[in-house]
């Protein structure tokens, strides 16, 4: 690469889940001060706020192609981000929630920008996972926490331990390869339920969770039994939480070993 070519800077920020309340000071300043802003956020108030905070802003919604396989679509978006970066000194990319959490366009864009010699920064945001831990009072360290994208969980037959918390993302999009919103999530939920019934009972509780997107609104938390999961209403924002069904016994070998190190 030519050493005299000026590098540009890509700052990827997370806008959080709850409109404006979750926007960190560093994300806000990055949006306001950038030479250009590209954004992919999922609710209208945040879009409007970004446009006002920085009039040199552009939504990436027009690139969100609902017929393309998601991965292909995300590559296309990152190529667009790179093109914009090549003509912008400081470009800010805004994603909702946390910008690397189930947010491939950010990761692809950062990798592409780095490969092309640009500076990159990723600023964390409050994710739907953070909201869920708070609203459902889950301490992920209490017995361990497993977190999977629901389709990935099934197709890779992920190993999981039912004595730990289990969180499944994109439960409303199981087996759906594109961003097309109108597909029926029921078939995917039936397959997931059949799989979970190998380790949990039909009566085991499952929580269908949606974090509040606006201040003063409450989260939506539906508790159902596992057998009823296929009939339960899910949306593209639903995340599933499955509590443990057993308590693990401590391993005596390690308990003794640890007891001995300080005695
Ligand atoms: C493409 S991912 C985006 C995640 C986002 N980057 C984040 O940090 O939360 C979409 C999935 O995240 C979860 N999600 C997004 N918004 C949510 C909300 N308001 N409540 C609960 N889960 C949510 C759902 O599992 C949804 O299918």
Overall description:
The protein has 263 residues and is of the alpha/beta class. The chain has two domains: 9-126, Tetrapyrrole methylase, N-terminal domain (Cobalt-precorrin-4 Transmethylase, domain 1, 3-Layer(aba) Sandwich); 129-242, Tetrapyrrole methylase, C-terminal domain (Methyltransferase, Cobalt-precorrin-4 Transmethylase, Domain 2, 2-Layer Sandwich). Helices cover 32% and strands 19% of the residues. The protein contains eight helices and ten strands. It has helices spanning 25-33, 44-53, 70-86, 104-115, 128-135, 150-155, 186-196, 252-261, and strands spanning 9-14, 36-40, 57-59, 90-95, 119-123, 145-149, 165-169, 205-210, 220-225, 239-242. The strands form two sheets. A five-stranded parallel beta sheet has the order 3-2-4-1-5, sandwiched between helices. Strand 2 (36-40), helix 2 and strand 3 form a beta-alpha-beta unit. Helix 3 packs across helix 4. The chain is globular, with a radius of gyration of 21 Å. The termini are far apart. The relative contact order is 0.14. The mean pLDDT is 94. The site of S-adenosylmethionine has 18 residues, from strand 8.
């Amino acid at each position: 690469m030519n050493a005299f070519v000026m590098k540009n800077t890509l700052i990827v920020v997370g806008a959080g889940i709850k409109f404006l309340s979750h926007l960190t000071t560093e994300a806000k300043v990055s949006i306001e001060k950038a030479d250009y802003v590209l954004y992919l956020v999922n609710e209208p108030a945040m879009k409007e706020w970004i446009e006002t905070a920085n009039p040199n802003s552009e939504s990436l919604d027009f690139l969100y192609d609902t017929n393309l396989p998601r991965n292909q679509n995300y590559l296309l978006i990152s190529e667009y981000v790179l093109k914009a970066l090549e003509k912008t000194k400081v470009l800010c990319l805004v994603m909702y929630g946390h910008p690397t959490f189930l947010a491939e366009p950010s990761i692809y864009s950062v990798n592409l920008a780095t490969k092309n010699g640009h500076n990159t920064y990723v600023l964390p945001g409050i994710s739907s996972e953070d909201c869920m831990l708070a609203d459902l009072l889950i301490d992920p360290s209490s017995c361990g926490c497993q977190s999977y994208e629901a389709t990935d969980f099934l197709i890779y037959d992920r190993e999981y331990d039912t004595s730990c918390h289990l969180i499944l993302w994109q439960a409303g999009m199981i087996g759906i390869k594109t961003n097309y919103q109108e597909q029926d999530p029921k078939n995917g939920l039936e397959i997931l339920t059949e799989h979970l019934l190998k380790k949990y009972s039909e009566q085991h509780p499952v929580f269908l969770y949606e974090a509040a997107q606006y201040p003063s609104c409450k989260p939506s938390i539906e508790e159902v039994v596992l057998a009823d999961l296929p009939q339960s209403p899910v949306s593209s924002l639903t995340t599933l939480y499955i509590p443990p069904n057993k308590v693990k016994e401590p391993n005596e070998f390690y308990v003794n070993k640890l007891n001995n190190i300080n005695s």
